[in-house]
Amino acid sequence: MTHIEIEISAELVRELLRKEHAWLPALAPRLPLPVPVPQRLGEPSARFPRPWIVTTWVPGEPADQAPVTRAAEDAAAAPGWTGPALLAACGRPPAQV
């Protein structure tokens, strides 16, 4: 297994988590598969120096541990679920947190 390590700024992490926190509750019900939905967005503190997020639990096997057996069928069952289609389905972007 290859291990790749990257370093990103705390500000970029904060921005990405804010977007996830804002978008996923609106997108999740419209997606063809269950996804974790953010419940709480936390800011850095003395106890934990990085931004953080709490999400709902999605039961099942972690994707990185599951065999890829039906990828073509699953992709064919959800055609058009790309960025433009998601935007069209959800309307305007939600307000930023």
From TrEMBL:
Transmembrane segments: none
InterPro entries xrefs: Aminoglycoside_PTrfase, Kinase-like_dom_sf
Secretion signal, residue range per the UniProt entry: none
Pfam families: APH
Aminoglycoside phosphotransferase domain: residues covered: 14-77
Coiled-coil segments: none
SUPFAM superfamilies for this protein: Protein kinase-like (PK-like)
The organism's place on the tree of life at top rank: Bacteria
Protein name: Aminoglycoside phosphotransferase domain-containing protein
